[in-house]
Specification:
8 helices; Rossmann fold; binds magnesium ion; binds 3,4-dihydroxybenzoic acid; seven-stranded mixed β-sheet
């Protein structure tokens, strides 16, 4: 007999097991998650296993400069900031003033505010101001999905050969393969198409099944 299809109860049990075994959140991370509901922000932070994945990718890449597009409450930002060596920096771009305020408080509480610059504004306005800075070693794209191609273009321009690019939410309960699933799904699909066709990138994607449901993450290298 074949195994039953994964049901929410079974994948949640595995998510809990893997998270408890391999991640282990501390008070600052738990407080950042709790702040979302308390402050009226959407509870769409990355799952703990994905936060740790970002953290490890940054360390594997030896990243000193990290760019995040879409801060929300800075849960993922804390994971990334904790991966930095001495003197490293995260620049995180957030369009919503209240989100940026909540994020700054969470970064303070986590003790990483000195390493993180929260830039308030839309990506299309803030990203062009970063061209004078040193290239970023890792870019995490987790904002309005309609703009994924714009953000990927900036990731390539603000990166260098070897820069790691991570794109969140590339599956969204399978909506990525539905052509009538709306502008966000269209944006996600266009971003994946760009990762395939644009010679500046080499990429893959992984499906994920965790407490946030059925989703996925794209991983790319700037070549
Ligand atoms: C959703 C999840 C996300 O991680 C995100 O960045 C945006 C939206 C969602 O589940 O709706
Ligand atoms: Mg996301």
């Amino acid at each position: 007999m074949t195994d039953p299809a994964p049901a929410p109860a079974s994948w949640l049990a595995v998510d809990t097991f893997l998270t408890d075994t391999l991640v282990g959140e501390d008070d600052a991370l738990r407080a950042a998650v709790a702040s979302l509901a308390a402050e009226g922000l959407p509870e769409i932070e990355v799952a703990p296993l994905n936060g740790k994945l970002l953290h490890l990718l940054a360390r594997i890449a030896g990243a000193r400069r990290v760019l995040e597009i879409g801060t929300l409450g800075a849960y993922s930002t804390i994971w990334l900031a904790r991966a930095l060596p001495e003197g490293g920096r995260v620049v995180t771009v957030e369009a919503e003033p209240h989100n940026a305020e909540v994020a700054r408080r969470n970064l303070e509480r986590a003790g990483v505010a000195d390493r993180v610059e929260v830039r308030l504004g839309r990506g299309e306005d803030v990203l062009p101001t970063l061209t004078q800075e040193e290239p970023f070693d890792l870019v995490f794209i987790d904002a309005d999905k309609e703009s994924n191609t714009l953000y990927l273009d900036w990731a390539a321009r603000l990166g260098r050969p070897g820069t790691v690019v991570v794109v969140d939410n590339v599956v969204r309960s399978g909506r990525v393969v539905k052509t009538d699933a709306g502008a966000q799904a269209d944006g996600v699909r266009a971003g994946l198409r760009m990762l395939a066709d644009d010679p500046r990138f080499d990429a893959t994607a992984l499906q994920t099944l965790d407490r946030k449901g059925w989703d996925g993450v794209a991983l790319a290298l700037v070549v």
